[in-house]
Fold these 2 entries.
Entry 1:
Amino acid sequence: MGIDTGRTWKRFRWLGLLVILLALILSRSELSSLEPTTRTETDLVQWEVATFEADITIPLGHPCMGGGVADAKEIVDPLWAKGFVLRPAGVRQKDDERLASVPAGKSAYFPLVVVALDWCQCNNDSYDRWREALAEAAGTTRERVFLATVHQHDAPICDLRAQQLLDQAGKKGWHCDPQFHETAVQRTVRALRTALDKPKRITHIGLGQAKVERIASNRRVVSADGRISWSRGSRSGDIFNAPEGEIDPWLKTISFWDGDTPILAWSCYAVHPMSYYGQGQVSADFPGLARARRQRDDPRVFQMYFTGCAGDVTAGKYNTGTPENRPQLAERLYQAMLAAWKNTQRFPLQSADFRSAPLYLPPRDEGKFTVAQMRRILADEKATRWQRISAAMGLSWRERVAAGRPIDVPCLDFNRGQALFLVLPAEAFVGYQLAAQKLRPDSFVMAVGFGDGAPGYIPTDRCWKEGYNDDYCWVAPMTDAILLDVLRQVLNVPESDASKVPPPLLAEKTAWNARIPLIRREVIYQELSPTFQWFHPRAAAIPPTGDSPHPTVILTLQKHLVASDYYSGLYVMRSEDLGRTWQGPKPVPELDWIRQPDGTVLAMCDVTPGYHPLTGKVIALGCSVYYDSQGRQLQDRPRCSQVAYAVYDPKTDRWARWQILELPPLEKFQFLARNGCGQWVVENDGSLLVPIYFAPRANMPFAVTVLRCRFDGQKLIYREHGDELFLNEVRGLSEPSLIQCGGMYYLTIRHDRRGYVTRSKDGLHWEPLRPWTFDDGSELGSYNTQQHWVCHEGELYLIYTRRGAQNDHIPRHRAPLWIARVDRDKLQVLRSTEQVVLPERGAMMGNFGAAPVTSREWWITVGENLLPQRTANRTKPDPRGADGSVLLGRLTWPKSER
């Protein structure tokens, strides 16, 4: 399933003529851009490249393949780090004045680093250490370092955290040598720094490809009795006389030129790069031999090689693992590299655009892949060396997932889509490489595999459904939708073009897509102030009217002032284009503080807005509080905190002033009876179901109930309330959040020690409370903060924070924000569906909102609450990244049949 060569090259020829005409019109050097549709801060840019290489051969005795095969006994040929730095000519260092005035990584002036390592894998902290060191040396950011391993097996896997865990178990050096790891990094850094002193001008980009004969075959084979297996390894030979299966037969080469002089070429082909291995004979194997031969062909041209997405592609059909096969495979690969070079066509280098998207892959969490089982295996002296190393690598991955650290997927876009170069993680299956090509069928797409190696194999959904179950895989099944969404982002493909994705990736994932949301993370607004933080951002969508295709989104938010729970009047932001652009935040005079005769202030806080379909109004529900002159909340008067609401009329664009909901004169409601931060429900007849918590006096535990109210377009009127839920522990129950989903009502409730959940058929009468747990019976770990709901097509989800995410430094573990599907029968969170909505960046995220915006999209919104110990230094971002942003986690579901 390669590119239609004739059709693609005809397009390239026409595009080349158009680019040449454009160059003649401009009569000077080509333009560079950061985004495909905008010009950069420069008018005219010339490009230069600096190539570098360093010997990163492991010493004798070092583990090969992370300790999974024999340690190094012999150096057959060296292992290399080979790379280049691409930058606009004249940019010499990161503090260049053109870089000083722009945010890190946002300028086209920041260099780009591309590097291939003759190692098996770099995982987690190892991968980031390489990127950070190379970025610092090149004067750029780590996101702009395109790092991948070639994946030879008689070479190291380095997972620094896994080795730390093995050290703690008394197995020093079993997996890798951190000291040598740093030595290799520093060798490469020195080579890069030296190369920067001798850059070469580039004016053109070359694109070439050729079909590879008799190397690649898919692991998947079907036996005579119809059984499917993935038994065709790198040296298995031609078992069952099976066909090659799903492969990408094309080797692709991208090159840089100075006029007619070639400077650099990097090639990519999707196949596991092993002929024979496992006996301690360190080698770059047949890709290294082919690359070295191409280098000898023309020493002027710096040669690099990458392995494509080859998790399920090996040389097995054409290789039996004998030493004689290595030069044969090298010859075939060399011939393809030579043919791709001869087929190369050159085009003026007009632009080099950078994009990146975070990839959050859920962890595998069953059987031996649970954290508890991996810890047991790691500590088991009877387990094999590889079993214990695998457990350590799995735990390293789980720690990373729990901390909410995504994998960066970078893409380099040449000439606004003419050629695209991207790096996917680990052992992604070839189906994802083919999908990337289908998403941009008119582009030259080079998809590299074996970026961050931490996830292990990343199978397509079809493979999981057919029974794939290899142990070297730490990601949950069925991740097509997540990978395809990231591909769409970095390849700059509109979501509406999803039909370009080939089957089976599209055809066989529909049922799963209807249940697992895709997540995109954005910044709505950012401001650091020593006197306040933006807090409680929550959205309400007003259906479109007239010619507008999008709803109007109203986002209410408040300033959290210097005292605890001390809030300003209400502010509003507004978007007419689904959050692409925003107006505000603007104060609403009608919703400001209300000064009292005794010098105190009546304010409203913890606001959740929502749309009321029958009246066409927006209702903002919250609670009233009294403040003294120092911002302290006052509880010295009856009804000191009650349900408050305000009404917005979209037709007049006016807010009515705050009103207090009149409740029955019952003792239970006379001290405190409030809706604070909770989701509420509009019933079909226009009635509101409003969850509240209440107490008759101070120092008494809160109880929870749900009010049914009528709304006439201006006034909210109490009609009745339901069961009163009470737990006589510490402060009781508070901040309930309500949703209707699949014909039932669900209530999640805050408690100081753990969250609680219950359900109802009518929204008023409730089953006994249950503590929130995962489906394995363990506690969810969400406590002393809110949880909120999401419902899509009858599937129920919970948004929450919890312990156990390497977040002990966050008070009450209020970050990151998680989402997981809820088993509606058992009222348990399905651990295997857990994803990070918004990662932890050194700030609390406990006061967030969740709201539907379209039939396929929900928004999770939160303001970053910088940690209390940083109150005096709120004008500087937290080292982990928190910078006073109002964040949006955009949840979307593809269209389904329902």
Note: The chain is about 15% helix and 35% strand.
Entry 2:
Amino acid sequence: MEEAHALLRWKTSLQNHNNGSLLSSWTLNNVTKTSPCAWVGIHCNRGGRVNSINLTSIGLKGMLHDFSFSSFPHLAYLDLWHNQLYGNIPPQIGNISRLKYLDLSSNLFFGTIPPEIGHLSYLKTLQLFENQLNGSIPYEIGRLSSLNYLALYSNYLEDLIPPSLGNLSNLDTLHLYDNSLSDSIPSEFGNLRSLSMLSLGYNKFSGSIPHSLGNLTNLATLYLHNNSLFDSIPSELGNLRSLSMLSLGYNKLSGSIPHSLGNLTNLATLYLYENSLSGSIPSEFGNLRSLSMLNLGYNKLNGIIPHSLGNLTNLATLYIHNNSLSGSIPSEIGNLRSLSNLGLSGNKLSGSIPPSLGYLSNLATLYLYSNSLFDSIPSELGNLRSLSMLSLGYNKLSGSIPHSLGNLTNLATLDLYDNSLSGSIPSEFGNLRSLSTLSLGYNKLSGSIPHSLGNLTNLDALYLYDNSLSGSIPGEIGNLRSISNLALNNNKLSGSIPQSLGNLSNLVILYLYNNSLFDSIPSELGNLRSLSMLSFAYNKLSGSIPHSLGVLDLSSNHIVGEIPTELGKLNFLIKLILAQNQLSGQLSPKLGSLAQLEHLDLSSNRLSNSIPKSFGNLVKLHYLNLSNNQFSRGIPIKLEELIHLSELDLSHNFLREAIPSQICIMQSLENLNLSHNSLVGLIPSCFEKMHGLLRIDISYNELQGPIPNSIAFRDAPIEALQGNKGLCGDVKGLPSCKTLKSNKQALRKIWVVVVFPLLGIVALLISLIGLFFKFQRRNNDLQTQQSSPGNTRGLLSVLTFEGKIVYEEIIRATNDFDDEHCIGKGGQGSVYKAELASGEIVAVKKFHSPLPGEMTFQQEFLNEVKALTEIRHRNIVKFYGFCSHVRHS
């Protein structure tokens, strides 16, 4: 009665106990009365007491906290595998004193393993795998002397393995893999003489492999891979004559491979890959006649491949890739008729490919790339009808490609990249209907591209670049509807680009650059909505640019006209290179909509007018090159928004005005080239705060004054500064600023002695002329007083003699010099556009207040007057006059 009520209480605690189909037989009625023995999952002994609970994989969801373990003194078997039970494993589980089998695996239990499990002295099987248990393994488990099966894998257990587990002399299987166990493997494991399975992989074990493991003569599987074990492999492992699987891969083992491993004649699998093993491959491996898998890849093995490996007639997989093996490939490898995978890539193998490999009729993958193999490709490889992967790239193979490779109808990947193969591409390649990747780049292939390649409808990538292929691109390439990568660049292809390429709707990369293609770019390419990388550079193409692109490189062609405004709609464009064409006209502000753009190169064209302010919206830009064009006006202040820009080249244009101080906000800038323009004024002193700026070139402008005290300017060669009017500073080839200062003081004396008296005379004349005009105005009739203010003579009169009126008019027209009316800023001041009440439009230069140590105000004035008189702009008329006011001094 107590057992039945205990089970019902636990059922009630389950979250899904109201599910009618779940444990529906668990109820007390006239049939069951007080006994649960007929309930699903419950078994009783002859005395009617529950001795087995088996509720595997029925969707239980809840905890064990309400399970009364003490109510089941006769329970020997408890299996709750594969449910959704969670929470801690209650310590009361240690009260089931007769328990022999406990399986709580594949649930959601968390917390630590209760040490009370160590009280279950009759326990033979303990399975807690695939939970979320953490903490360390309780040393009390070492007291379970009857235990023969312990599985704690796929949890979050950590710390070291308790040496007490070495007391489990009856243990047959120990699974601890896929945890976070650390420290060294206990040498006490050498006491587990009954052990047939030891699995400790995917942990954090360090130290060396215990030599004592050589005592485990019944061991069939030793699984230690994916740890951090180091030192050499103990030769004592050669004593494990029952071993069928030895996996030591993905560790840090070093030293040579013990020859004693050649004694393991029952070994079927040997994994030693991804270590730092050195020395040669033991010839004794030829004794391992049961071996089906041998993987020694990614080590530091050297010497030759032992000919004795040809004895391993049961071998299905042989991987010795990425070592430093030398010599030739033994012809005896052709005896391995069971071989399905052969990987010898990434070594220093030389010589020719043995024709005997053509006997490996079961071979599915053949990797020989990245060696120094030479001579021709054996035609016998055409017999490998099961082959799906053939990779011979990065070698020194020569001669023509065997036509027999066209027989490999199961081939998915054919890689002959980077060799010295010559001759034409076999038309038989059109038979390879399963092919998804064809890589023939970097060879010496000639002739035309076979039209039969259009049959390869499963092809995803076609790489024929860097050869000497000629003729036109076959229109049949347009049949390759699955292709995503097409690279035909660096050949001698001619003719026009086939319109059929517009059918390749999955195309992501199209490289046709450096050929002799001509005619216009087909408008059908605009259908390629998946295209993200396109390069037609170095051809003879003409016409307009297609729209749907992500990366566009059309440099070094003959493209003419304006850049289409539609480019501003390419929302995913990252790189735009249109350099070295014949593009002209003004840049569209819509290019500022390319929010993802990181690289923009429009250099060496005929682009003109101003640089769009909208370029300041290209906030992801790292590289901007507008050099060798015909841009005029000033550098847009909005470029300050390009805070990620590392390289800016505006050289060889017609830019004028001063360098805006806002450029100093671009703290990521490393390279700045403003040379060969007409920039004026001082170099902003804030350049001294641009600590990331490494290289500067401001040569051949009209800049003056001291150079900033920063690394870029101090380390600049004189060639990067020459060709300006009056730069000074501590750079070889420039005059010292002290010398310039003394010259200025001399000029100041001349100004005082000569100019001031002259100004007095001029002032007297102006006063007399003013009295004369005042007298004349009194005699003018009303018509004369209302004469048109748009008349140039009248404007000159107003500006010259009615300074107060004009000043108030300028304040009104510029809204007290509001930035809205600013059309440029320089080192000495700002220029404003003012529309007077008369409708006349003038430019007003407002000077900054002179600071001590700067050039004299008079010199600034003369320079700025000269600059203003030379400006040619449809909104600016000639220079008329100036005024000074304390409000703006």
Note: The two ends are 105 Å apart (CA to CA).
